[in-house]
Every structure is written in structure tokens, then in C-alpha cells.
Specification:
The complex is a heterodimer of chains A (450) and B (293).
Chain A (H helix, E strand, L loop, with lengths): L1 H27 L9 E9 L5 E11 L3 H31 L7 H17 L4 H34 L1 H27 L5 H18 L2 E2 L5 E3 L2 E5 L2 E2 L1 E7 L2 E8 L2 E5 L6 H37 L12 E2 L8 E2 L22 H7 L16 H41 L3 H36 L1
Antiparallel strand pairs in A: 1-2, 3-4, 4-5, 5-6, 7-8, 8-9, 10-11
Helix pairs in contact in A: 1-10, 2-4, 2-6, 2-7, 2-9, 3-4, 3-8, 3-9, 4-7, 5-6, 6-7, 7-8, 7-9
Chain B lengths: L3 H28 L10 H55 L6 H22 L2 E2 L2 E2 L24 E4 L5 E5 L2 H5 L7 H14 L3 H54 L3 H27 L2 H5 L1
Chain lengths: 450, 293
């Protein structure tokens, strides 16, 4: 009986030691956000007649929450997407609308004001010079916006290759971990640490590129496979001008990934570049429309020396910012409607000023004056920035809530682990005491039976 | 179960949010604006831009109306001088037509009349900022030569404000003062008077009186019209100022920060920050490890 007691107590010692080792590991990982608290799985050893013969450790497991993990990945993808988008568009906004208040809309209005003033005193050279200055200011504002937005786009796209490199490194690691998990599972282990590592990689991939990972560690971007079991495929980036596109290089050929399917930091960056590019196009469209309308009216008028047909602006046909016609002098501004009206007729200058109330100069904004179009362009851009910031904040809150939910199930609680530490320490001591009692009993029996 | 690290992260995140909120409130208080960029409030931004552009146009209109008013007031002064000259010419004509004056007296009156013509030409050649106001659009030449012949053209120029209101600032002098060469208006009447006085013909002098009276009426009518234009400009100026003030108020309501409200919000946010810092400091102390130690 005493030898049975000793062997049974020995199983208790073994189980308590393994449990204490697991608790130590949990405490050591208490600050590791990608760690799920582990616990030993205990089972009673059944003897003859169904009587307990001790305890055995059948394995070490951790609570895995695949659905919550998937939700966290989605939310992290959203957060990163909107964070990148908001950050880049906020930079773009500083070029589009400088904090000084001297923005493009004001520059357009100043030009119209200058024409209004010139119409009253068309022979006044200082007023003619003021028109040229206002035109120059408008061209410079347009140039500054174009350069600023283009530089922001360029910088954003230049950062993408390193992110794609990180994605490919993580995909390689994911494939390797998949192999290790398959191997561990084949030998009966649930490999909780490896699963935690896989979850962490999955969340990083979601955050970087919006990749989704299934419960077997297969990763895809917009349906295109990035990791399939133990095999990973290269994600490739192609940049042409301000257009970025992604493809995954599969053995049977490259598979394009639609930009709309790309999330995370990469997706947000690509979308932001597109938004900045569209804003630049809208601004150029508005400025070109104003410049062309002014040119048409200017060319119909007569300068002080009788000159006519000379445009005020050079409007590039291939896009890009306008310039003030370098060959136009102040005297050549066509303020007069007729040659006979030179120099005191300012009716053509008045006609140029009246363009401020013309609707539909910019065909993209029918029914809107240039000032209203400017207001609409900037307000719409601001709405996109604001929306991204709000979406980012919401996704951040969601990530936080989901992580708290996850931690309530699988996180390491120091208090809980300390309690269990004491519990298993007591169990270990009790099992040790049972062994000692068993040994004493054995000794007693040996001594008394002699 | 409950993970300590996520609790700590949550408190850190909340602290970040409160800090960002404090920064935003401080920025609003520093700039005095609650909407300083489109993303602050896109709808309000769009509205404020329209208001700002309209304000710019109205402020320009107000300044321009003030300048235009100066032009017309000065032109009005010139017209008053011209009217006085014509009244003197009428007195001269009345005196010269009564048949009691000798030839030498009439000749003397003719000299006086020549002086009046010179005064009229001076008044009609009124310039503002170097531009002849009564030379039509030929603003770079004197409207009349010394003989009272019109040198300008038949054009006119107006200033048009942003709301489409238009007021003439340069005039066809021939319609106001006539022309000696074609014997019309005030110039023609005084030239005719000089000729009549020089020809020692009281009847001829008497014949100039109706033309002089008509010219005076024309000047009077034009002065009235000019007065109307001045009133219109004054109205544009007043309206621009009033509307601009109203728009500034509207824009202020839209984009200006409410400092009292911001101060309250700032106090609340700082209180939140203190509470969160206090909470964060308890994270380490609350562990069971401290109890069991």
C-alpha cells in the first residue's frame, strides 16, 4: 500500500512541477501581447475498479480564439489603412490649404478684384501691374500646390518597397511556422507558442497589407494567395508615375491584386496617393478653367498700345501648373473692348472681373462659380481626411476592445498566475509530504516486520 | 482571466486620446479658430470659404466705391464751376444785349467772355489721377483745346462692382459741355457769345441767351445725374461695409473658437488626464504580488 501511495504521490509531484513550469512561462510572458496564457491539462489515472491512481499531464494548452483573432486582424488592417491615408492626406492638406490663409481661392479672387479695379482706371499702370502681380500669385499658388502634392505622393510611394519587403519576410516566416506547427501537431502537441507566433504574424500582415489568414495559416490578399501551407509567394510592387499596383508571383504566373482589395498601410498609402493625385487634377482643372476663360477675354481686348490677342496665362496642354505669359507687359493687358476705346475703356477688364460670377467655367463643377468650385474641392478633400481620421479612431477603439476581450479569455493575469502558483506550490508540498508519509510508513513496516 | 498588459495599454491609449484632445483645444484657443483647415469641419470650411471670397470682393468694392466717389465728387465740383461760369456768361450776354453799350464796352465784354471760355475749358479738362474725366475713353488727352473744341471721343467708362452694379466714371464731354467747333452746348454758346460781342451786335448777343440757358440746363441735368451716381456709389460703399460686417459675423460664428467653452473643455480634459495618470500609477501597485510579498 505504501509503495502505491508513493507512486501516486509521485504523479502529483510531476503534475505540480509541470504546472509550476507552465505558470513560470506565463509570468515570464506577462508583458508579451502575442502570448496566450497556457495551462496544463490534467487527467486522473484510473486504476483497477475505476479507482484513482494519481494524476497525469496530458498536455499543455492555451485558449485560442480564431474568430476574435480574425476580427483583430481586420480592425488592425482598417486602423493602419486609415492611419496611412489620414497622415498622407493631412500632409497634402497643408499644401492645398496653407495655414497662412493665403490660399488658391483667395488668389483667384484677388485676380478678379484686380480686374475690377483696373476696369475703373484702365490707363493706370499701377493697377495694370497689380493685375500681373495677382496673376503671378495665382500661378505660384498653383505651382506650390502641384509641387507639394507631387512631393507627398512621391515620398509615399518611395516608402512602399520597404513595406512590401516586410510583408514578404513575414510571409516566409509564416510558411516556416506553418511547417513547424504541422510537425508539432503530427506528434500530438497543440504547439500553443507557435500558434501565438502565427497569430502575431497574421496581425502584422493584416496591418501592413490587409492580408487575411485562415485558421491553418494560409494567407491571402484580396483572394490571391500569399502563403499556402508551407509555401510563400512573393508580393511585387510596380510603380508607374503616381500609379502603384501589386501582384503575387505564383508558380503558374503573376496574379494581380486589385488596389481596392489591398488594406493596411500599403492600401491606405495607395489610396491616399490616388486621392492626392485627384485633388491635384481638380485644382489644375479649376485653375486651367479660370486661366483659359481669362485668356479668351484678354485676347479679345486691347492693350494701351493697341495690342490684342495676347494671352495672360500660358496653360500647358499636357497638364501641370499655369504660368504668367512672360511676353505680356502690363501695358498689353487688354482692358479695352475696342481699339477706339484705348486707353480709357475698361469694359474688357470688367468682363474679365465678371468671370468671378460665371458658373460652369470648370466643366467638372457645372453651376458653380470658380470660388464655389474651390470651396467644394477643398471641403470634399477635407471630408476625406476627416473621414479617415474618424475611421482610424474607430478602428483603434475596436482593436483595443477586441484585444481586451481576447485578453479576458487568453491573456496572462499576474494575480491569477500568482494564485495558481501558490496552489501548485501547496500541491507540490502536499505530494512531497505524501511521499514522505509513504516512506515513513514503509520504514515503519520494514522495522516492525523484522 | 484578464491580461495586465492590455489594461496598461488601454490606459496608455486613453492618455494619448486625452492628450490629443488637450492639444486640439489649446490649438483652437491659440489660433482663435475652431475650423482652420478643411478636415476640421468640411461643411463649415466650405461655407466659410465662400464667405471669405465674398468678403474679399466686397471689401474691394467698398474701397473702389470710395475712390470712385472721390472722382465723381471732384467732377461735380468742376461742373459747379462750369455752371457758375455759364451763369456769368448769361449775365454778360444780358448786359451786352440791352443796346446801351458802346462798341468798346462790348469789346471789353468780349474779352471777359474769352476769360469765361478759358474757365469753362479748364473745368471741362478736369483730370483725376492724370486721366481726363470728360474726354470719353481718350483719357490721356485734354478733353478740350483752348478754343473749346472737343478733343475726346464719344466713349464712356464705368466701374462695375462684384454684384453687377455699374457706375460711369468717364464721360463723353461733348454731351456735357458741347463743342465750340460744332457750336453746341456750353462751349458753343460761350464761343458764340464772344463772336457776338466782338461783332458789336447786341441782337446777335441776345440770340446767344437761349443757347446759354439751354447749356446751363444741360449742366444742371448732368450734375443731378452725377449726384445720383454719387448716391449710388455711397450706397454701394455702405452696403459693402454692412454686408461685409454681417459676413464677418457669420464667418466668426462659423469658425471662431468659443473661448469660454474651450476653457471648460480644457479643464475637463486636464482633469481626465490627471485621473488617468493616477489610474496608471496604480497598475503596478494593484498586483497580488504586492499583497503576498
Amino acid at each position: 500500500m505504501s509503495t502505491g501511495m508513493i507512486s501516486i504521490a509521485q504523479t502529483g509531484v510531476n503534475a505540480a512541477q509541470e504546472a509550476l513550469a507552465t505558470i513560470s512561462s506565463n509570468i515570464a510572458n506577462a508583458s508579451n501581447p502575442n502570448y496566450s496564457a497556457e495551462s496544463v491539462d490534467l487527467a486522473a489515472i484510473t486504476g483497477p475498479g475505476g479507482v484513482g491512481q494519481g494524476v497525469e499531464v496530458t498536455g499543455v494548452s492555451a485558449a485560442q480564439l480564431p474568430f476574435i483573432n480574425s476580427q483583430i486582424s481586420d480592425a488592425q488592417s482598417q486602423e493602419s489603412y486609415n492611419a496611412s491615408y489620414a497622415q498622407l492626406t493631412q500632409i497634402g492638406q497643408t499644401f492645398l490649404v496653407p495655414q497662412s490663409g493665403q490660399n488658391l481661392g483667395a488668389a483667384i479672387q484677388n485676380l478678379f478684384n484686380a480686374f475690377t479695379n483696373l476696369s475703373a482706371s484702365p490707363q493706370d499702370m499701377s493697377l495694370r501691374q497689380a493685375v500681373l502681380s495677382a496673376a503671378q500669385s495665382l500661378a505660384q499658388q498653383s505651382q506650390t500646390i502641384n509641387n507639394g502634392l507631387a512631393q507627398t505622393e512621391s515620398n509615399a510611394l518611395a516608402g512602399l518597397p520597404s513595406v512590401i519587403g516586410q510583408v514578404n519576410d513575414l510571409a516566409t516566416q509564416m510558411a516556416q511556422i506553418n511547417t513547424q506547427i504541422q510537425s508539432a501537431q503530427a506528434s500530438g502537441s497543440s504547439a500553443p507558442v507557435l500558434v501565438d507566433q502565427r497569430n502575431a504574424i497574421a496581425q502584422n500582415l493584416a496591418s501592413l497589407v490587409g492580408a487575411t489568414t485562415d485558421s491553418n495559416g494560409n494567407v491571402s490578399i484580396g483572394g490571391a494567395p500569399l502563403v499556402s501551407g508551407s509555401q510563400s509567394f512573393a508580393l511585387e510592387l510596380t510603380v508607374s508615375g503616381t500609379n502603384a499596383s501589386l501582384q503575387i508571383k505564383l508558380p503558374q504566373g503573376a496574379l494581380a491584386v486589385a488596389n481596392s482589395q489591398v488594406g493596411g498601410e500599403v492600401g491606405g498609402t495607395i489610396a491616399a496617393v490616388s486621392t492626392l493625385s485627384q485633388a491635384a487634377a481638380q485644382i489644375n482643372g479649376l485653375v486651367d478653367a479660370v486661366a483659359n476663360a481669362v485668356n479668351t477675354q484678354q485676347e479679345a481686348g486691347y492693350g494701351l498700345s493697341g495690342s490684342t490677342g495676347i494671352p495672360l496665362f500660358v496653360v500647358p496642354t499636357t497638364g501641370g501648373p499655369i504660368q504668367v505669359n512672360p511676353s505680356l507687359s502690363a501695358a498689353q493687358i487688354g482692358a479695352a473692348q475696342t481699339l477706339a476705346g484705348v486707353p480709357g475703356d475698361g469694359s474688357n477688364a470688367a468682363a474679365m472681373a465678371a468671370l468671378q460670377n460665371s458658373t460652369g467655367l470648370d466643366a467638372s463643377f457645372p453651376g458653380s462659380t470658380p470660388g464655389q468650385a474651390w470651396s467644394q474641392i477643398t471641403a470634399a478633400f477635407g471630408a476625406q481626411v476627416q473621414n479617415a481620421s474618424q475611421q482610424q479612431s474607430q478602428a483603434q477603439d475596436l482593436v483595443q476592445s477586441l484585444q481586451q476581450l481576447q485578453s479576458s479569455v487568453s491573456g496572462v493575469s499576474i494575480n491569477e498566475q500568482l494564485t495558481m502558483l501558490l496552489q501548485y506550490q501547496n500541491a507540490l508540498e502536499a505530494s512531497g509530504r505524501a511521499i514522505a508519509v509513504g516512506l515513513n510508513l514503509t520504514q515503519f513496516l520494514i522495522s516492525n516486520l523484522q | 482571466m484578464g491580461s495586465d498588459i492590455f489594461f496598461a495599454n488601454s490606459v496608455a491609449q486613453d492618455l494619448n486620446n486625452v492628450f490629443t484632445n488637450i492639444q486640439n483645444i489649446q490649438s483652437q484657443m491659440a489660433t482663435g479658430l475652431k475650423v482652420s483647415q478643411p478636415s476640421d469641419n468640411p461643411a463649415v470650411w466650405g461655407e466659410s470659404q465662400i464667405l471669405a471670397l465674398n468678403q474679399s470682393a466686397l471689401a474691394n468694392d467698398g474701397t473702389l466705391a470710395g475712390s470712385a466717389l472721390s472722382v465723381l465728387q471732384s467732377a461735380g465740383t468742376a461742373l459747379q464751376q462750369a455752371s457758375q461760369t455759364l451763369q456769368q456768361a448769361i449775365s454778360l450776354a444780358t448786359e451786352g444785349s440791352n443796346g446801351t453799350l458802346s462798341a468798346s464796352n462790348l469789346s471789353s465784354l468780349a474779352s471777359t467772355a474769352q476769360g469765361l471760355l478759358n474757365q469753362l475749358v479748364n473745368a471741362a479738362n478736369f483730370q483725376y489721377d492724370g486721366a481726363s474725366v470728360f474726354a470719353g475713353t481718350a483719357s490721356n488727352v485734354a478733353a478740350y483745346n483752348a478754343s473749346g473744341d472737343y478733343q475726346g471721343n464719344s466713349g464712356s467708362n464705368s466701374v462695375t462692382f462684384s454684384d453687377g452694379t455699374s457706375v460711369a466714371l468717364a464721360f463723353n464731354g461733348k454731351q456735357v459741355f458741347g463743342d465750340a467747333a460744332s457750336n453746341t452746348g456750353a462751349m458753343g454758346a460761350i464761343s458764340g457769345l464772344i463772336s457776338a460781342l466782338s461783332s458789336d451786335s447786341p441782337s446777335a448777343v441776345a440770340a446767344t441767351l437761349p443757347q446759354l440757358q439751354a447749356a446751363l440746363t444741360t449742366l444742371g441735368n448732368f450734375s443731378s445725374a452725377l449726384g445720383g451716381s454719387q448716391q449710388l456709389l455711397q450706397s454701394v460703399q455702405n452696403q459693402a461695409s454692412a454686408t461685409n460686417t454681417q459676413m464677418q459675423n457669420n464667418q466668426s460664428n462659423l469658425v471662431d473658437a468659443n473661448l469660454a467653452k474651450d476653457s471648460t473643455a480644457l479643464s475637463l480634459a486636464e482633469l481626465q488626464q490627471q485621473a488617468l495618470v493616477g489610474l496608471a500609477s496604480t497598475i503596478a501597485r494593484s498586483s497580488l504580488i504586492n499583497v503576498l510579498a
